[in-house]
């Protein structure tokens, strides 16, 4: 019947949609990168707060505006820094 054929086509279309490689979609890749940066920023903020106490708003804004490579560098420096300023030198 027509209804059965239509259901079969819908199932085939659904199967095709689930097989799309999302990592090949530029917007998806951009979203994933942004998510990773936000995670690194949140971790760095937590580490700095635990080590040095409440963070000035300027530091918080600097972290939120930073790129992944800056966040990684600061994340390493927080391990040995004696002051908040040393992290950002």
How would you classify the helix and strand content by structural class?
Answer: mainly alpha
* Global mean pLDDT: 87
Q: What helical percentage do the residues reach?
A: over 70%
Annotation, overall tally of beta strands: 0
Overall, the morphology is rod-shaped
Q: Work out the strand percent.
A: under 5%
Number of domains: 1
Protein name: DUF4351 domain-containing protein
InterPro entries: DUF4351 (IPR025587)
Domain DUF4351: 33-86
What does the model show?
74% of the residues lie in helices and 0% in strands. The termini are far apart. The protein is built from five helices and no strands. The chain has one domain. The mean pLDDT is 87. α2 runs parallel beside α4. It has 89 residues and is mainly alpha-helical. It is rod-shaped. It comes from Candidatus Kentrum sp. FW. This is DUF4351 domain-containing protein. InterPro entries: DUF4351. Pfam families: DUF4351 (PF14261).
Topology (elements, then pairings):
Elements: H1 2-18, H2 26-52, H3 57-64, H4 68-77, H5 84-87
Pfam family, one: DUF4351
Protein name: DUF4351 domain-containing protein
InterPro entries: DUF4351
Top keywords for this entry?
mainly alpha, 0% strand, 89 residues
Task: Give the structure's gist in a few sentences.
The chain is an all-alpha fold and 89 residues long. The protein has five helices and no strands.
